[in-house]
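Quick one:
INPUT:
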C-alpha cells in the first residue's frame, strides 16, 4: 500500500520523490521500502505503455530514491536536527549513540549515582533505612527487581520527569495503625467465655507475646527489620462459636493486623522510594542536558528534541511543511505520542501560537498524512505505543471510526486492506467466524472491532 501510494504521488500528482517522507518501524523495513519503490518505478519506466511525460517523472524519481526521506522515526528526527538543530541550541555536529553505547553510558551513570549516594553524608539516613526495608539498589540474584531497573526506565522516559527536588528529610516511622490493631486484638480477648478456647490460647500464648515484643523495640530501624522478617500473622485453628460473641469477627482482627503491618511498611518504603526517585530523576535530566550540550544524543533524545524543534520554531515548521508534500507512516499501530506529534506538526501549516495546541487540534490539509496500521497488532505499549492513540488518530485523520455505514468526513478516509494472500479460504472462513464473535464491537482504548478477511487463495488442489 505504501509503495503504490508513493508511485501514485509521483505519476498522478507529479510530486517529487524528495518531497515524500516515509517513516517505518525498523531500518530493515526502511531499506526494503526503498528497494521496492525503486523496483516499482523501474517497472513503470520499462513498460512500453508508459508515456514520455510519465517516463520522465519516473526517471527523475528513480534518481532521487537514495536521497528520499525513507527511514525510521529516529532517523527522520536526526535528519531534522542535523539541519535545524542549532535553532534550539544544539551544536553543529551531532552524533547518535547506538544501543550498546547507550547501555554503557547508562551503566556508567548508575555507578556514579550509587557512588555519590554512598558518599553523601546527607543521604546517610536514607541509605540506612533503604537497607532496613530491603529496598535494593543492585540485584542480589538473577531476575531480582531493583532500583537499577527503575533507573533504566527513567532514562527511556526522561522527558516526562520533573525537576522537583527530593523531600527535605525522611518522615518519622509511624506504626500507630499496627499498634491500634494489636490493641483491638487484646481487647477482643475479653469477649471469650472460655480461656481454654484454642483461638484464645493461640492469641494469648503466641500472637500477643510476639507482637508485643516486636513493638517494644524502641529503635525504629530495628523495628522495621523485624517487621520485614515477621511475615504474616497466622490465625491458627480452633475457636468455637459458642465461646465468642462473633468468632469470625474476632479472627478478622488478625487480618486487620496484617493489613496494618503491610500499610506501615508500605508507607515507609514509599518514603524511601520518593527520595531515591527524586535523586535519580535529577541525575537523568542532568544527563539529558549534558547530551544535548555535547551533541552525543540517544534515541529518545532525537524524538524529544525533534518535537521541541517543531513545536517552538514556526519558521522551521513552515519550511518543512513546504518541503514535504506527504508524510507516510508505516506500522502505525506501534506509534507513540511523539511520532504522531512530529507528523501532525509538519503536516499542518505553521501558524502563530500553534505550539500550544495538541496534535489532535491541528488541521493538516487533505492528503498530507497517510497511515498504514493494524490495531490488532498493537503490542508495543512498553514503548509508549497505545491502541487508544491509534484509534484517536484514526478518528481524527481518517474521518471517523470507519464504520461501513458511516461516510468519511472532510478530514480523510479509511481504506481497508482485507485481502489475505497467505491463507487458504477455509482457514480464513474459520478465523472470520471465530473472531467476529470474539471481537464484535470496538472497546474504546482497549480493543478494535474485528474486520473480516477476504481469502485470495482457494482450497482447490489441497490433499485432505
Amino acid at each position: 500500500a505504501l509503495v503504490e501510494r508513493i508511485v501514485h504521488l509521483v505519476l498522478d500528482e507529479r510530486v517529487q520523490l524528495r518531497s515524500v517522507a516515509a517513516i517505518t518501524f525498523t531500518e530493515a523495513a526502511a531499506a526494503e521500502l526503498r528497494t521496492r519503490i525503486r523496483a516499482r518505478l523501474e517497472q513503470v519506466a520499462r513498460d512500453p505503455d508508459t508515456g514520455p511525460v510519465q517516463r520522465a517523472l519516473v526517471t527523475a524519481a528513480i534518481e532521487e530514491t537514495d536521497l528520499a526521506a525513507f527511514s525510521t522515526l529516529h532517523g527522520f528526527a536526526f535528519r531534522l536536527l542535523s539541519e535545524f538543530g542549532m535553532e534550539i541550541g544544539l551544536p553543529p555536529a551531532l552524533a547518535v549513540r547506538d544501543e550498546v553505547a547507550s547501555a554503557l553510558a547508562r551503566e556508567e551513570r548508575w555507578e556514579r549515582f550509587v557512588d555519590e549516594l554512598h558518599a553523601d553524608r546527607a543521604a546517610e539516613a536514607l541509605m540506612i533505612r533503604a537497607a532496613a526495608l530491603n529496598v535494593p539498589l543492585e540485584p542480589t540474584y538473577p531476575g531480582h527487581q531493583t532500583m537499577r531497573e527503575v533507573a533504566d526506565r527513567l532514562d527511556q522516559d526522561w522527558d516526562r520527569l520533573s525537576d522537583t527536588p527530593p523531600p527535605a528529610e525522611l518522615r518519622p516511622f509511624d506504626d500507630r495503625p499496627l499498634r491500634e490493631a494489636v490493641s483491638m486484638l487484646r481487647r477482643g480477648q475479653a469477649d471469650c467465655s472460655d480461656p481454654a478456647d484454642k483461638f484464645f490460647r493461640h492469641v494469648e500464648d503466641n500472637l500477643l507475646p510476639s507482637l508485643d515484643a516486636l513493638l517494644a523495640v524502641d529503635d525504629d530501624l530495628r523495628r522495621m527489620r523485624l517487621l520485614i522478617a515477621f511475615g504474616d500473622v497466622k490465625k491458627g485453628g480452633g475457636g468455637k462459636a459458642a465461646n465468642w460473641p462473633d468468632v469470625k469477627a474476632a479472627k478478622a482482627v488478625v487480618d486487620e493486623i496484617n493489613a496494618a503491618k503491610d500499610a506501615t511498611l508500605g508507607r515507609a518504603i514509599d518514603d524511601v522510594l520518593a527520595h531515591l526517585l527524586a535523586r535519580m530523576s535529577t541525575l537523568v535530566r542532568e544527563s539529558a542536558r549534558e547530551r544535548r550540550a555535547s551533541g552525543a544524543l540517544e534515541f529518545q533524545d532525537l524524538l524529544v528534541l525533534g518535537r521541541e524543534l517543531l513545536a517552538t520554531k514556526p519558521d522551521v515548521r513552515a519550511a518543512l511543511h513546504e518541503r514535504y508534500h506527504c508524510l507516510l507512516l508505516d506500522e502505525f499501530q506501534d506509534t507513540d505520542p511523539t511520532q504522531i506529534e512530529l507528523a501532525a506538526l509538519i503536516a499542518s501549516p505553521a501558524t502563530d501560537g500553534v505550539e500550544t495546541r495538541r496534535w489532535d487540534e491541528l488541521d493538516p490539509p487533505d492528503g498530507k498524512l497517510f497511515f498504514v496500521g493494524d490495531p490488532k497488532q498493537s503490542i508495543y505499549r512498553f514503548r509508549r505505543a497505545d491502541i487508544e492513540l491509534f484509534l484517536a488518530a484514526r478518528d481524527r485523520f481518517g474521518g471517523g471510526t470507519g464504520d461501513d455505514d458511516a461516510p468519511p468526513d472532510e478530514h480523510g478516509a479509511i481504506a481497508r486492506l482485507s485481502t489475505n494472500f497467505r491463507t487458504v479460504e477455509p482457514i480464513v472462513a474459520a478465523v472470520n467466524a471465530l473472531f467476529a464473535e470474539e471481537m464484535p464491537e470496538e472497546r474504546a482504548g482497549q480493543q478494535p472491532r474485528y474486520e473480516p478477511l477476504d481469502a485470495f487463495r482457494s482450497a482447490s488442489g489441497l490433499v485432505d
